[in-house]
Amino acid sequence: MEKAELLSTIELPKSFTDILYLTNHNQIPSEIKRLLRQRKLSYRILPIDKFSTVRGQLNMIGTVVIDAEGSDAMQQQKLARIIESLEMENIGVILLTERMEMPVKSFSLSPAKSSFTMGGTTEAVSIDDLWVRVSVNLAYRKKSTGMAVKPALPPKQVQTIYKNKLAQQLSMTGAMVDNLTEQLRLAGLVQQDFLQTEMPNTDKIHWATVFLPAEWVSGDIYDVVRIDEQHIAFYVADVVGHGMPAALLTIFLKQAMVLRETVENNYRIFSPAEVMKHLNVRMAAQKLSGYQFATCCYCLLDTKTLQLTFARAGHPYPILIRPGEAPERLEIRGSLLGVFGQSEYPQQTLQLQSGDKLLLYSDGAEPFIGRFDDESGFNFSEKFSNIMNLPIVEMRDKFRELTQSQKIDPAEFDDITTVSLEIM
Questions:
Q1: Per the domain annotation, does 159 fall within a domain?
Q2: Around Cβ 347, how many Cβ atoms within 10 Å?
């Protein structure tokens, strides 16, 4: 039997959909529809808000195209969760941010009067660029799931040859895996070297952090830094995605986050809104491969007045824990970093008082804190409620124990990071 014949049996489930097109416009642009028909690709249109209806069918989806044109801050926050869930399922995402009245020549279809911009770029791209993204995503998806090609069983004489070759490949693969594991372990150690370990504790303010990567390297990063004698800045950022690309982007975020500017002998501290805006512009300008985005919550604390000013970019809301009161999520708008270069980030100011605790966390920690219900809103878990009134360091230790003891679906396990403070 020839080698080509071994790869001749192609099996695709009948319900497999090549492209899931998420949009709130109820239709696909005519150029894209013509492309899909020309390439004989199956597709399904679904409103972004209805994505939850297909969560249990993601194994039957090839790639996802998200039409985010005209989305508001709340929708952008939903998009962050959608993109991350797709990344966890190894499903490629193509994000279309807007239409542009800038014709781009296409070699596949007749010229159109408008073109598209994709996530991470402000330049117009042609329908050919879109097709390249789609075809690469589908090839990777079908190969990784084993759907694309299922070879017929070779005869015994061919099995022997393949068995020997397989043994050699397994031996080489084992060595490569060991080497890769060691490289990832070292990369994780380097990444943690960038994290702040010495907290600016005083008699008035105590700090505590948790950093638990899901793998050797993490898509989360945090920092707690004293800007001057009166101000401390702190944040938690979370890259949408996992693995080495996400870890590399966390280092970029840390280096790109500018907290103040110095002019001659004077300096000015940037407000949280300015920090978020500048970081978003720098990230969007990078035109990152793979459409990497991030969320962040950034806070600035005046240690004398105890005024806290904060802004967020698609990140879980910070939590205020005040003695004798129910915990409160501090809700404020703010879109993802790296998607819309012109986004504005509002900020709020809160007066802290003795006994207050504030908690920032990445979305990997959210299942241990509480869950959102469509009818009743966000509900704090009983186990978190039992530890939230403990002193901040003890609360940190109990929370770490909680993450290690509570059973959670492996598909939902994510990097866990928290930064918390307590006013003594």
A1: no
A2: 19
Which of 404, 403, 399, 390 lies closest to 419, judged by CA? 399
- Tens-place pLDDT, residues 40-80: 888 888 888 888 888 888 888 888 888 877 776 666 777 77
Distance of CA 416 to the CA centre of its chain: 13
pLDDT in tens, 90-125: 788 888 776 665 554 444 444 444 555 555 555 566
Q: Are 237 and 294 in contact (CB under 8 A)?
A: yes
Last residue of a domain, one of 80, 110, 145: 145
Nearest to 194, CA basis, from 229, 224, 216: 224
Share of the chain above pLDDT 90, in %: 22
Position 224 pLDDT exceeds 80:
yes
Do 393 and 288 share a structural domain?
Answer: yes
Classify residue 331: in a domain, yes or no: yes
CA separation for the pair 290, 217 (Å, rounded):
18
Average pLDDT, the chain: 78
Tell whether 109 and 210 lie within a shared domain: no
| DSSP structure string for 316-374 | PPPEEE-TTS--EE-----PPBTT-TT-----EEEE--TT-EEEEE-TTSHHHHEEEET
Neighbours of 172 (CB within 10 A): 10
Which residue range forms the structural domain that includes residue 80?
A: 17-145
Examine the domain organization and report whether 210 and 346 are in the same domain: yes
Residues 139 and 213 in one domain: no
pLDDT tens by residue, 4-40: 333 333 333 457 888 888 888 878 888 888 888 888 8
Same domain (yes/no): 133, 70: yes
One domain, residues 271 and 386: yes
Classify burial at 326, counting beta carbons within 10 Å of its beta carbon; exposed 0-12, middle 13-18, buried 19 or more.
exposed
Q: How many domains does the chain have?
A: 2
Task: Note the pTM of the prediction, 2 decimals.
Answer: 0.63
Quick one: 361 exposed, middle or buried, by C-beta within 10 A (0-12, 13-18, 19+)? buried
Q: Is the model more confident about 398 or about 217?
A: 398
**CATH number assigned to the domain comprising residue 400:** 3.60.40.10
What is the Cα–Cα distance from 296 to 316, expressed in whole angstroms?
Answer: 8
From first CA to last CA, the distance across the chain in angstroms is: 77
